[in-house]
Write a structure and sequence with these properties.
36% helix; alpha/beta; 22 strands; 34 helices; formyl-coa transferase, domain 3; globular; seven-stranded mixed β-sheet
Length: 802
């Protein structure tokens, strides 16, 4: 890394509002949890989340407690005073353009008045464009971003994921962006504006659909958990997830023990898929006689990545989560006064604060002294020509596979890190051979040799391909040699695998005491379930997310293997904490990230409600507290949908007027929720007679927050997702882009992922210090592989940013 790192305690000012500002509150919560001084600026009546049910014993909303623990509260007129922003390092803002302009907080004024300030500006739909001045929430963002199209069952309405997932993901993305912008500021650049749009983050989560659409010409859609290769099966007391790959079939047969499954023909994957109606009922009858957790336990003993649908009460009782300190059932948590969950990442060098949420206006801006004495005084910063990318000089050993690990290192590579993707010829990243959509493909060439799966580049562009056989002593010595030159290692193997491969933390720390070692395992490095295996869908179940996702009163629903939402969220959290540690010179420590805990962390309010009141939530469709109606509705076109959300009586009155439905006028949110079936039928009768986009325009013109529910085909035809670099067109299968933008800085766009061993020789000479004759000897011994493939069109070594 180049240049000094300031570290130290940061002053963060947070100007966010209610439900739409939840993402900003998440971002601020990460700063507060890590010990920084976060000043929450509130209007005189307080953040609306203070009053949003469920409430604690003091009448404060549990969502507010979960997102604002450890912060201080100032009244908003104080927060806009120069004294406060003069002393601030970061401003977290969720104002829409018109709101910001009314308060004088335009990008131009922010840059002119506070040139060193890093602004994390989080909106639902961006600061410009068609929907920029529309109030939004997770449902609207997930709908316009296309993610909602993938959640639910075919023929039924699209769903938002349980909780406020787009808001949480956007908040984490904003924190990552702040760390990158602060790192650039440390290197002499000005502050920057980090631009995060919830709908872009939702589209970023659904990148696999873009690839699927390119390959088949058909936009993927929700398939539900009751069909396909992976299924939710009803147990005697709940639901179990049968999640397995071809290599697991023998273990599935052993688990169920039914003679019908021992038919040798079923060992063939295509035959098994064709005969699903014959053997799935056998599995369902077997599962119906056992508790869901027992099915999960038996399956995990056989190495099967099964899961079971854990409800919030089950999370609170989980021995795994309690022993790791993630669930903290202290008396104050039971009263709803402090969060019931701990940090989303474990690190011995980081102290996570979980104090109470602040009372309204208990701090005064004029009484606050600066907390960063090392921060340069206000004034025009000196920006060196060709300022390096924020992670220039950082060397990362990448043992990440599929998404959770590989997407972390992709984010690091985007911003300048030298990422060495280490694989071996017969043990590559599983995503290289991940099952592709059936051809009819728009991009397939008849007779062409099979290449890496088109899914692979999205998590691996911009990296260097290094082929080393870790099952040889020579290969392990080479990795130790590279580790001595590295700053970060990322792995998401099952617990115990790294020790077998000789790349465990203790071994590599001996070679490099300063190595930052990130492990992204299913359930963390310790605990009774630590050695269990999982895929993203497993974590949908174990985290509690599936127990909250689904149609009102119906069975749970997961995000499916087509989305694998938990992996996407985990990758953002992993990258954010790595960059945080790098900027703050936190070295020589482990980052233990439990993928299950990261997703459960987004359900902090629901867990608090369960602990404080005994309420154990179940799927409720798209219903959310304080907002009604809040749902998706069919339009006149085939499989066309729109989403709308009303958060105030004025918006509900506007909706009733637009529908010409006087019977819906004059009612509050409680009435709409109690009469949701009848009211929903009136709305659906109106939308079903109009094309989607026409209905959306009429609703918006009337003052109702409404957006079209897009799919991958719609995204491909919508310029904003290309213009905002959410997706990179390549001439072939598209590549996942960036989840955020910066005003003054754009990382380079990489379109090519490395072949196995493509850069082995170059890396071992430049970083490993090996001579050419040593390389020849090691290759003859089968320790390394140097691919003859040459990188075309791109210099794979990180360069300075634009």
């Amino acid at each position: 890394m180049t240049g000094p790192r300031s570290g130290g305690r940061l002053r963060v000012v947070e100007i966010t509002s209610g439900v739409a500002g939840m993402a900003g509150a998440v971002c601020g919560r990460l700063f507060a949890g890590l010990g920084h001084d976060v000043l929450k600026a509130e209007p005189p009546g307080g953040d609306p989340l203070r009053r949003q049910p469920p409430l604690n014993r003091d009448g404060t909303g549990l969502t507010f407690v979960a997102l604002n623990a450890g912060k201080r509260s100032v009244l908003i007129e104080d927060a806009l005073g120069p004294a406060l922003l003069d002393a601030a390092d970061v401003l977290v803002l969720d104002l829409r353009p018109a709101q910001a302009a009314a308060r004088g907080l335009t990008p131009e004024r922010l840059r002119e008045a506070w040139p060193r300030l890093v602004v994390v500006w989080i909106t639902a739909f961006g600061r410009d464009g068609e929907f920029s001045d529309l109030a939004g929430d997770s449902l609207l963002a997930e709908s316009y971003g296309g993610l909602a199209t993938m959640i639910g069952e075919a023929g039924r309405p699209p769903l938002s994921l349980g909780g406020e997932q787009a808001a949480y993901c956007a908040g984490v993305t904003g924190f990552l962006g702040a760390m990158l912008a602060l790192t650039r500021r440390d290197d002499g650049a000005a502050g920057d504006i980090v631009d995060v749009a919830l709908c872009d983050v939702a589209a970023y989560m659904d990148w696999k659909s873009d690839v699927g659409y390119f390959m088949t010409g058909v936009a993927p859609e929700r398939a539900g958990p009751g069909s396909g290769e992976w299924r939710l099966v009803q147990a005697s007391d709940g639901w179990a997830g049968f999640i397995f790959q071809q290599r697991h079939w023998a273990a599935v047969v052993e688990l169920v023990g039914a003679p019908e499954l021992r038919d040798p023909a079923l060992a063939d994957e295509l035959t098994r898929m064709a005969r699903g109606p014959q053997w799935w009922p056998v599995v369902e009858r077997w599962a119906a006689g056992l508790p869901a957790e027992e099915i999960y336990t038996r399956a995990q003993r056989l190495g099967l990545p099964f899961g079971w649908v854990v409800r919030t009460s089950g999370l609170l009782a989980s021995r795994q989560l309690r022993e790791r300190g993630f669930i903290r059932p202290v008396p104050d948590a039971g009263a709803g006064l402090v969060p019931v969950v701990g940090a989303p990442a474990h690190n011995s060098a980081l102290t996570w604060r979980s104090g109470p949420a602040p009372g309204l206006g208990t701090s005064r801006a004029g009484d606050l002294a600066p907390v960063s004495p090392g921060t340069p005084p206000p004034g025009p910063p000196t920006v060196p020509p060709g300022t390096p990318l924020p992670l220039s000089g950082v060397v990362v050993l990448d043992f990440g596979t599929i998404t959770a690990g590989a997407a972390v290192t992709r984010l690091l590579a985007d911003h300048g890190a030298t990422v060495l993707k280490i694989e071996w010829l017969n043990r590559p990243d599983t995503f290289r051979s991940w099952k592709m959509p059936q051809a009819g493909s728009a991009g397939a060439e008849p007779g062409a040799a099979r290449q890496d799966s088109p899914y692979f580049p999205s998590n691996n562009v911009g990296k260097l391909g290094v082929a080393i056989d870790l099952k040889t002593a020579g290969g392990q010595r080479l990795v130790r040699r590279l580790a001595a030159r590295a700053h970060v290692l990322v792995e998401n193997y099952r617990v115990g695998v790294t020790a077998r491969l000789g790349i465990d933390e203790a071994t590599l720390r001996a070679a490099n005491p300063g190595l930052l070692y990130l492990s992204l395992s299913s359930q963390g490095q310790q605990g009774p379930e630590a050695r269990n295996s999982s895929f993203g869908s497993t974590l949908d179940l174990l985290s509690g997310l599936a127990s909250l996702t689904g149609y009102d009163g119906d069975r749970p629903i997961w995000s499916s293997s087509e989305v694998n939402y938990p992996d996407q969220l985990v990758s953002l959290v992993g990258a954010a904490f790595v960059v945080y540690c790098l900027r703050n010179r936190i070295t020589g420590v482990s980052l233990d990230v439990s993928q299950r805990e990261v997703v459960s962390w987004t359900l902090a309010a629901e867990l608090a409600d369960s602990l404080a009141s005994g309420h154990d939530p179940v799927p409720a469709g798209n219903r959310r507290p304080g907002r009604a109606p809040h749902d998706t509705f069919a339009a006149a076109g085939p499989d066309e949908w729109l989403a709308l959300s009303c958060g105030s009586d004025a918006e509900r009155a506007a909706l009733a007027s637009c529908l010409a439905a006087p019977e819906l006028a004059g009612h509050d949110a409680a009435w709409w929720d109690a009469h949701r079936t009848e009211a929903g039928a009136v709305i659906a009768g109106w939308t079903s007679k109009r094309p989607r986009d026409e209905a959306v325009t009429l609703l918006r013109d009337a003052g109702v927050a409404a957006v079209p529910v897009l799919n991958a085909a719609d995204r491909a035809a919508t310029p904003r997702f290309r213009e905002r670099l959410v997706t990179f067109p390549t001439g072939g299968a598209p590549v996942k882009g960036f989840p955020l933008l910066f005003r003054d800085y754009q990382p380079p766009v990489h379109l090519t992922a490395p072949a196995i061993g493509e850069h082995t020789c170059d890396v071992l000479i430049r970083l490993g210090g090996l001579a050419p004759d040593e390389l020849s000897r090691l290759e003859e011994q089968g320790v390394i592989f140097c691919s003859p493939i040459a990188q075309k069109g791109e210099d794979p070594w990180p360069t300075r940013g634009s």
